[in-house]
Amino acid sequence: MDKPLKNPPPYAITSVDHALRAAAMLQLEGGLTVSQVAGRLGVARSTAHRLLAMLVYRDFAVQGEDRVYRAGPVLELAAHSQSAVSRLRAIALPHLHRLMELVEETANLVIRTGDSVRFIASAECRQALRVGSREGMVFPAHRTTGGLLLLAELPEEELAEVYAEERYRDRPGERPDLGALRRELARARRGGFAVNRERSERGLVAVGVPVRGADGRAVAGVSVSMPSVRYEKDRLGTLVATLAGVAREIEGELSA
Asked: What residues have CB less than 8 Å from 78, skipping those under 6 apart?
């Protein structure tokens, strides 16, 4: 049986959520000021300052002489390095915000590592009922839109290696049905997009397309997530076209 869906806790602690999101931003982006963190989290500067001070105290962040906060020693990823992921994220983030404005839903960017995907950027929409930011979160690849798109790029032998039975010896219930997964990946390859209907979280629908590097291979997935009550199948074509346009713009900057 598959691993249970990832659902938000029934009694979410807002201050903890803000601190974790701030840590993820520092890890993924690098240097941020108090004002930037406050704006991204939608909190007062005084609140952001207290959050960052606690992250510094626990070594999740450091503050430089320029008063800019950066990832601390606890966060292993040096987010301010010029890595491929850092560059991808920096290029994509403005496009995600524009995508969010266009469709009025939360926009995301994911990358794949093995059988998991990590959300490296999110632009959370402003609607009262919305899908929250997934920035920094990790999900099983086969349960997410971006993950399906990236898995669909793999040759058959590489897909079989990712989901080899011995890799799941200690967690057999998390291994997907490969026959069903192959059929779904074939549909994603043919259509050039994927749809996730409550596979990663109840009440959530996501639609996504791949983002390709200069060599033509998919390096990430860009998607929009929305409450299932707001998803209209008649909008699918428009959503896919909008996503494809944004993906092409990201690809253009990546190639440059």
From this structure: 71
**pTM: predicted TM-score of the whole model, two decimal places:** 0.71
CATH number of 84-255: 3.30.450.40
Q: Which residues contact residue 196 at a Cβ distance below 8 angstroms, ignoring those fewer than 6 apart?
A: 143, 144, 145, 148, 204, 205, 206, 207, 208, 223
Q: What CATH number has the domain spanning 14-71?
A: 1.10.10.10
SS3 at position 51: helix
Are 92 and 223 in contact, with CB atoms under 8 Å apart? no
Q: What is the per-residue pLDDT across 157-209, written as a single tens digit (0 to 9) for each?
A: 999 999 999 888 888 888 999 999 999 999 999 999 999 998 888 899 999 99
In the chain, domain spans: 14-71, 84-255
